Input
Amino acid sequence: MKLNNDQIALLKWISAGLLIPEVRNLNGDAGYLLNNMIAKFTLASSEYRVSERAHSRFKALGIILSETHRRSKFYGKNSPFMYEHAIPAVVVRNQLLRVKPTQRNVLNILQKAGPVVVVLREEEKILKKLRMNQQMPDGWTWGGNPLARYRLAGIRISKQRLRVEGAIQR
Output
């Protein structure tokens, strides 16, 4: 996985932060801040996966996925789309807190955090109903299929990719 400049900066920020005992102990807002940086690392990717239903909606709207789009174009309360982290940031954070916080270990975990997946808002509601918005399915272990919770929810992920650029939306 080739990292872009934003991901390199976020990797360094996360790695440095994990060296601070108060961050590792999740004092103050450390848990929130660490989750946010993990999410931004994933969102900084130049390609997002797309659910089959989101792909159908893109096609109906005349959106050409092979073109590069601003991240902000499909983000926000009025958008039918949502950017989902295949593995929730809290799950990634918990894995990071289990290892020695070297930059190599942090990178290894972040690279296994899975892609961002563009889903429809109604698909995200299915994940919430199943309580899969902040966790992975029972029996899932680190390094397993990062798309496992979508499979559990019956959300099919297409082979299509949405190419994105611009400011990270979170």
Observations:
- Residues 5-165 form one domain.
